[in-house]
Write a structure and sequence with these properties.
mainly alpha, 0% strand, 64% helix, globular
């Protein structure tokens, strides 16, 4: 597969904004305000989710393997924006530039190491989820030397890239800046300085309390519990809680999106949890079942009627096609509602894929 610049890509669906408070948070978190993040300044949960989940600290997977996983999943998803940014990160953390370029035409070149190959195949299977990884892939990882904690972190890392791909693709973030950056001479020249700044971001480990009291409650608590003991658990709990209280869509709309995505990916437990949350919002099980089957129903309000079929389309897509569909959706939503729907659908895709590979009750 060649470089992704030939992938058709629409103009951005939303405009950049200003938000001094969020801009200060970004500077504290990543050292600057990346131009692409200005498109999300009107949706704090989306911005927080993008940064905190993509850069959640991993204890058992090193930065280079994490970058390779991101490269594989972004290429598999045809995400021009994420693929180019991952190339930048791989160069910065020390992978030779010619090796990064070689990966674009022959990703298997990165898999000559028998320990790397099963990890990248595992990441691909999570991305495609058709079918998701099975016990066979997990056993291959164990035989390659990965302990269960590392397998959980690989699953989290791959599914977080699935989320990041959708966050970039659904609103059509402009990829040209990151593509130029990926090939720029000054990134290679300043690599030691950039690595000094980037590595703490990728390797920052929270304090001893990985989860505060209450982690056993809230949407999808069983998945958070399956990650207990790893820093990523706290990042995921925070993302779910902030999104579920976001103001521009109702909890019922959020739960319906999660149910649609889980049904589409065949994730039985994730669907059951979403239907439990739907029932808490007063929608009868029979009506919810019809909505999942038909992606429509008289019980849906106008926003839900527009969002539910769109959610199903976010599971697998061609970038330009889903972007044009998003532009049509925007005719019925405000930009704030649309960005919140992007956040909901992206996290739903991450959760359903995680559910399929984690050993959960």
């Amino acid at each position: 597969m060649t470089i992704l610049r030939d992938v058709e890509w629409e103009e951005p669906l939303v405009e950049t904004q200003q938000n001094p408070e969020l801009e200060r948070w970004l500077k504290r978190r990543v050292g600057s305000v990346p131009p692409s993040m200005r498109y999300f300044l009107g949706c704090p949960p989306l911005l927080h989710m993008e940064i905190d989940l993509e850069f959640a600290p991993l204890l058992h997977v090193d930065s280079e393997l994490r970058g390779l996983v991101a490269l594989v999943v972004s290429q598999d998803s045809s995400c021009r924006f994420c693929y180019a940014m991952t190339r930048v990160i791989l160069s910065v953390i020390g992978m030779p530039h010619d090796q990064v370029l070689k990966l674009e035409n022959a990703l298997q070149a990165a898999a000559e190491d028998p320990q790397i190959q099963p990890a990248l195949e595992f990441a691909r299977r999570i991305s495609r989820s058709n079918p998701p990884p099975s016990a066979v892939e997990k056993q291959a990882l164990r035989e390659a030397g990965y302990e269960d904690a590392a397998i959980k972190e690989l699953a989290f890392a791959a599914s977080a890239v699935v989320l990041a791909n959708r966050i970039a693709t659904l609103p059509a973030l402009p990829p040209q800046h990151s593509e130029r950056l990926a090939d720029s001479w000054w990134v290679r020249r300043l690599r030691p300085l950039l690595a000094w700044r980037l590595r703490p971001l990728l390797e920052r480990i929270p304090g001893p309390a990985l989860l505060e009291d209450g982690h056993e409650r809230g949407p999808y608590a069983y998945i958070v519990q399956a990650l207990y003991g790893l820093p990523v658990a706290r990042a995921l709990r925070s993302a779910l809680d902030e999104l579920w209280t976001a103001p521009h869509t109702t909890p019922r709309t959020k739960a319906l999106v999660f149910a649609v995505v889980a049904r589409g990916l065949g994730s039985v437990r994730a669907e059951a949890e979403a239907l439990r949350l739907v029932a808490e919002e007063g929608l009868a099980a029979e009506a919810a079942g019809r909505i999942l089957a038909d992606l429509a129903g008289p019980e849906l309000d106008p926003i839900e009627a527009a969002v539910v079929p769109y959610a199903r389309a976010t599971i697998w897509y061609e970038p330009a096609s889903i972007q044009r569909r998003g532009r049509t959706l925007l005719e019925q939503l405000t930009s704030e509602q649309f960005l919140e729907v992007v956040a909901i659908a992206s996290l739903a895709n991450m959760i359903a894929r995680l559910d399929a590979v984690l050993d959960t009750p």
